[in-house]
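The methods section describes the discrete structure representation at length, but only in general terms. The central task, working out the structure tokens from the amino acid sequence alone, is never made concrete. Nothing conveys this as quickly as seeing an actual entry. For illustration, here is how one protein appears when written out as sequence plus structure tokens:
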Amino acid sequence: MVFSSPLTRLAPGVLLCAGLTLLALALQRVEEAAIGFPYVEALVLAILLGTLVRTFWNPGPAWREGIAFSAKTLLEVAVFLLGASVSFGLIASAGLGLLVGIAATVAIVILASYGVGRLLGLPRRMAVLIACGNSICGNSAIAAVAPVIGAKPDEVASSIAFTAVLGVIVVLALPLLVPLLTLTETQYGVVAGLTVYAVPQVLAATVPVGPVAVQIGTVVKLVRVLMLGPVVVVMALLAPRISGQGGGAAAVAKQGIGRFVPWFIAGFLLLAGLRSLGLIPDAMTGPVNVVARFLTIVSMAALGLGVDVRVLGRVGPAVVAAVTVSLLLLVAISLGLVRLLQVS
């Protein structure tokens, strides 16, 4: 009898996902060289490449264990490592009023977006993914929430794909609000930080407006990203109900909160705490972020390899509608927050 080690069993699938990741990164470099900015980031390209491969070839048993490991475990490691780049001191720099406003905006949009998704007939898990993606940080939020609520690869891939498309549209269209609504640089920075998905996209959306918009938008966006930790913990507590298996608060009380908080979220918060205390030096955050990003892209390639495009076709219209309505709601609430706080 031949015994295979875990490394031998995982290697084919992991190497396949890593290869697709390198190709996605290369394509992103081509975009940057051609147009100066990656409108379709490597994370999304990895999903598309994985889906393309899956369309023409269904990986056999020799590949599946490594693909599953890449989609789940490597993604959890990536989320854990992201905590090293988060400093709770950033919260204080934003100001109490704006901090409360950001938290309220995220909470309201998550609830409203989930409601819209359910009204449009989306499954609970997909409605949650779209709500969290639009409300916090797009692809990264979807990727972080997915393993917590047990989302299927089809649900994750379709949520990221349609959210990514609208994310590009937002970057291109958002600066038009400045002349239309006579926004100041500070006001626009707040709106951009609250609505644009990724930090690089915030830069792309604010640079044409001015340096003040860039600074404000980046700070607001980073504070918004900090909401990912608490939101994922809440989703972990609600996971049994979201998956339709019952549970909720009663199950938490019975089994203990530790049972419902994933190790990588606890680790994320621990690293963020160490970073805030200055125990993780600045020189380490860059390399750690590079590793976390690479692992995230690997996991997205793995998710793409598990996607059935026929399922994407069936849920497409409802997902597009849910993402669009959610995004418009987010923009409206962000503008309302600027007026309410009398940002000038």
The chain has 17 helices and no strands. Residues 172 and 205 are 7 Å apart (CA to CA). Residues 6-340 form one domain. Residues 246-260 have pLDDT under 50 and may be disordered.
